[in-house]
C-alpha cells in the first residue's frame, strides 16, 4: 500500500456541465443526431482538462477525477460495477448510459429521484437477486491517465458500496423481503477489482462517497458498513481509502468508520457537528469540510479556522476541504458583472470556494463583509387559521357553482418555441415592453379559448410570462438577485439558475394580478391565480445563511400573502399556491423532521390564511413520495390539493392517510413526464379508484403537474379525455 500523504487542501467534486453549459449542448446535439460520439467525447475531454488546469492554477493540492459524468454519477457507478440492466446495454458506455437514463426503443428509462436533500436527480439502480456484477474500471482509469498527461495527479472518486446499494431499488420480480443491500458481498468483489485496477495504475488515494451514512441507519446497515470497510481495508492491493460523508453529520456511523481500517474520513462540518474524539481517529486523516458546497456564500475564515483547530486535536492529520462536491454551485463568480458590488463581496461560486480551501490550508484567508442587518421583521407571526373547512367549502360552492369532479390543470401550458423567442427578444431589447405585453396577452387568450372549447371547469392563464416558477417571482421581489451564467445541473443536460436571496424580501408591486385579471376578463368560468409558495421559493434559491431559514421564509411568505390579497381584491376567486419542493427539504434525520414541517406549514399558512372563506385556495405538490408527508399536507389547510399520482400508478390512493385527508384532492390522472396520452377508459378507472378512497364531492380531475414541457397536440388530446372521463362519471 502506498504511503503518499493526503493533500492538505482538496475538494470532493466539481461541476461538470461546463462554464457555458458546453456539455449540455454537446449532449443534446448528440441525442438529436446532429453530431457524433467523437465530438461528444472531445467536449468532455476539453472540459475535464480545463477543470484540472484551473484547479492547479488556483493551487489546490488534491484535485479529483472521475467526477465528470456524461449523465449521472450513480448510473456511472452501476456501469463501473457492470450492473446496468441488460435491456439497456449498448455498444458504447455512453449509449448504455443514455438508454438507461432516457429510455430507448420503447423501453422506459430507469426511475429518477432527488439526490438526498438537493435539487440534483440521480437514476435509481435496479438490483435483484440475479444481478451480475463485473468490475469495469475503464472510466476512472482513463480519467486518471488523462490528468497525468497534463502532469496532474488526481484522486479518483467512486460512489461507495453501501450508498450505492442503499440508493438502489429491488429489480422487478425480486422476491418480497429482498433488499439490494443483501448483495453487498458480491458488490464488494467488484469493488475489490476496481481498487486493484486503480492500484495497478499507481493511484495513491481513492475517494469512496458514502453520503447515505448521514441519514438514520439501522443496526444491520451499520454492521454492513463495518463489514464492507473491514473487507476493502484488508486488501493488500489497493490505494489508500478516503471515505467521504456529506450533507450532515455521521452520528452513529462515525465510530463504525473510525474502527475500520480506512485511512481517511471526510466529515461535513458545515451541516454536521464537530465529531467526538475517538481513539480510532488518532491515526487517520480527517478531511474537514469547512467550505460549504451547498451555498454561494463566502466562508467566514475566523469560524472555519476555529473549527479546524477543534478537529486538529482529534485526528492524526487534518486536511481542508469543501463540505461536499461543488456540483451544487455555479462555476465562477468572475463572469457575473451585473451583480451589485456589495453582494459580490459576500459571494463565492465553485472557483472561489477552491481559493478559500487553499487559503484556509495556508492560513492566509482574508475577512468577509457582514450581511446586511434585516430592516423588516424576521420573527414569524403566530399561525393564523382560516374558518373551518366546512364553512369555507359551503361559501366556495355557492360562489363557484362547480360541477362534481371539476376538471382543472396545474398552471402552465406548453412553452412553445415562439414564446421562448419572445422572451429572448424582450431580454435583448428586440421587442419593447408594450409589444411583449401584447404577445403574452394573445397567448393567454389562446389558452383560455382552448380550455373553454375543451370543457375544462377551472381555467388557468397558462403562465406564458414565466421562464421558471421560482425565478419569475425572484425577478419581481426585492432582496433577490439573478445571475447570468449561474447554472447548476439538475439532471442529465438540464440545469437551473437558482436566484440568490441576499437581503430583505419585499414585494414592491403586484406581480401576477395583471395577467390573471386579463385571463378572467375573457371568460365566465373561474380562472385560478397562480403563485409559487414560500417553501419552494427558498428551496430553489440560494438563500442567505446568516439568518435562520424560518426567518427568511417568513419574509417570502409575507410577500406571497400580499399577492394573494391583491388577487382576491381584483376578483379572482381561486388562488393556487404551489409547493412542489415541500418534500425535498425534509431533513435526512427523522428527529429533525417535525421541526421542519412545523415551520414549512406555518410559512404556507402565513401566505394563504388571509384569504376569505369564499376564496378557494389550491396547492400543488409533485415528485411523488407525497404519501410520506400527507399529514403535513393536510395541515397546509388548502381547500384543494393536487398531487402526482399517474406516474406512480395511483400508489398514493392506497395510503390509509388518504382516507383521513379532509379536503379536496386531485390525484393526477395524466403523467406529464411522458408523451403518452391516457385513454378516457384509463382515466375513468383512475377516477373510480379515487372516488372509492374519497367522497366523490372532494375529488378533482387534473394532470400530475404543469404542461409546459409537453406539446399542444398531446395536451389537447389528453385534456379532451380528462373532460370525457369526468363527464362519464358524472353521468353515473
Ligand atoms: C413543478 S410544479 C409546477 C407548477 C406550475 N404551476 C406549473 O404548472 O408549471
Ligand atoms: Zn408539479
From TrEMBL:
Its cofactor is Zn(2+). Its EC number is 2.1.1.14. L-methionine binds at residues 410-412, 463, 578. Binds 2 Zn(2+) ions per subunit. Residues 405-727 form the Cobalamin-independent methionine synthase MetE C-terminal/archaeal domain. 5-methyltetrahydropteroyltri-L-glutamate binds at residues 24, 119, 494-495, 540. The keyword Glycoprotein does not apply. It is an enzyme of class 2 (transferase). The keyword Amino-acid biosynthesis applies. One of its GO terms (biological process) is methylation. CDD domains: CIMS_C_terminal_like, CIMS_N_terminal_like. It comes from the Bacteria. The active site is at residue 673. Pathway: Amino-acid biosynthesis; L-methionine biosynthesis via de novo pathway; L-methionine from L-homocysteine (MetE route): step 1/1. L-homocysteine binds at residues 410-412, 578. InterPro entries: Cbl-indep_Met_Synth_N, Cobalamin-indep_Met_synthase, Met_Synth_C/arc, UROD/MetE-like_sf. Zn(2+) binds at residues 620, 622, 644, 705. Belongs to the vitamin-B12 independent methionine synthase family. This is 5-methyltetrahydropteroyltriglutamate--homocysteine S-methyltransferase. It comes from Actinocatenispora rupis. The lineage of its organism: Bacteria, Bacillati, Actinomycetota, Actinomycetes, Micromonosporales.
